[in-house]
Write a structure and sequence with these properties.
Elements lengths: L2 H5 L4 H28 L4 H29 L2 H20 L4 H13 L4 H12 L5 H11 L1 H17 L2 H20 L2 H5 L16 H30 L5 H22 L6 H19 L5 H29 L5 H29 L2 H5 L1 H15 L8 H4 L5
Pfam family, one: MFS_1
Keywords: Membrane, Transmembrane, Transmembrane helix
Main location: membrane
Length: 396
């Protein structure tokens, strides 16, 4: 069955579209919040604090909201958080001159980000045939690239047509709209997580998940480092469309990689695939670190994306298989948090190195980070199996 047939399956298109719409505010906020604050002549210090508060609160709030979904269901979490997160964006847009209001709005918008991403991934095994679940994860990982492409374009359009604050108002509206589409769908309303053991670690008592998440911190770090590195590269080389063009090529490569992964009939195990794809990422990021000519760099942007989306797909499948009963939504939320944290650290490290060290150190960060992913997955490969007996530590 191809992707078009998969999209025709009951509720698949509705849930995928609703999730993408509802997640647009996350991408829009990263650009709109700084633009709103600078339009109000706020200091760069406040811009940095607000952006950091938005990212950190989202990273902390995600697993907590995921645990709540596993306990009380999806609609009871998605609908209130959409209202709260939208309210946070409205606060920033209404009072960009007030640092206390801005920071309160940023924390609220981040911490209450509706957990649409983990909620959708929990539902895939319930709405598609077992032999199509992996293809659904591949489609999911590729479709999220549309957010990274579409969100900045929407913000840019709103700024040109109206004002930076209007982009935040639209973000609040889109977040609520997307959540309504998902939360009112029968699969979301009917989903109930299995009973879970009463331990505070939740999914983190799975040794396999801990190994996977530790490895993926490096992958997230490589992504964050690339986002900063291409800006410096575009300043030093003539690149059509600048840094944005390079990142667009990376997103296009990821989209192609996700489609290609779903079309391949894989015979190797999941942990072997994870190692193979991580090695591919390591090689391509190491080559990016050589800072080749623009034509070669353009090709490498596509190649890094080609490996990234399949790596995400394999990670989704492993989370589904390794999460202890009753913790899968929280486990998927931890996956988002791991990537967000790794990306933030990677971007910060490269930024410091570009200011204070030789360029080669900043350029090598992506290769080093993905090498760490390979090492962690290789050392802990025996835990990356699809059985709870081998993957879960006894509670208590």
């Amino acid at each position: 069955m191809g992707y078009l047939s998969l999209l025709r399956s009951p509720f698949v298109l509705r849930l995928l579209a609703g999730t993408l719409i509802g997640r647009l505010p996350t991408g829009m906020g990263l650009l709109a919040v700084p633009l709103v604050l600078r339009h109000a002549r706020a200091s760069y210090g406040l811009v940095g604090l607000a952006s950091g508060a938005l990212a950190i609160s989202a990273a902390v709030g995600g697993p907590l909201l995921g645990r709540l979904v596993d306990r009380i269901g999806q609609p009871r979490v998605l609908l209130p958080t959409a209202v709260l997160a939208g309210g946070g964006f409205l606060l920033i847009g209404a009072a960009p001159h007030s640092p206390p209001v801005v920071l309160t709005g940023a924390v609220l918008a981040g911490a209450a980000t509706p957990p649409l991403e983990p909620c959708l991934r929990v539902l895939w095994p319930h709405i598609v045939a077992p032999d199509l679940v992996e293809k659904a994860y591949a489609m999911d990982s590729g479709a999220q690239e549309l957010i990274f492409i579409g969100a900045p374009l929407i913000v840019t359009g709103m700024v040109a047509l109206a004002s930076p604050a209007s982009a935040l108002w639209l973000a609040a509206l889109l977040g609520l709209l997307g959540v309504l589409v998902v939360a009112t769908a029968p699969p979301s309303r009917n989903y109930r997580a299995p009973e879970r053991s009463a331990d505070w670690l939740g999914p983190l008592r799975s040794r396999g998940l801990v190994v996977l998440f530790a490895g993926l911190i490096g992958t997230g770090g490589a992504i964050g480092s690339l986002n900063v590195l291409v800006v410096r590269y575009a300043e030093q080389h003539r690149v059509p469309a600048g840094a944005g063009g390079l990142l667009a090529l990376n997103a296009a490569g990821a989209l192609c990689g996700a489609v290609g992964y779903g079309l391949i009939r894989w015979t190797m195990s999941m942990r072997a695939r994870a190692l193979l794809l991580a090695a591919g990422l390591m090689t391509s990021y190491a080559m990016v670190g050589l800072r080749p000519a623009p034509s070669a760099m353009a090709v490498l942007m596509v190649v890094t994306g080609l490996f990234l989306a399949p790596m995400l797909t394999v990670s989704f499948v492993l989370v589904d298989r390794l999460a202890p009963p009753g913790t899968i939504t929280e486990a998927f939320a931890w996956l988002v948090t791991v990537f967000t944290t790794g990306s933030a650290v990677g971007a910060a490290v490269v930024g410091v190195l570009l200011d204070r060290a030789a360029p080669v150190w900043a350029s090598s960060c992506g290769g080093i980070a993905t090498a760490a992913t390979v090492v962690v997955l290789l050392v802990g490969r025996r835990t990356l199996v699809g059985g709870e007996a081998a993957a879960v530590e006894p509670a208590g």
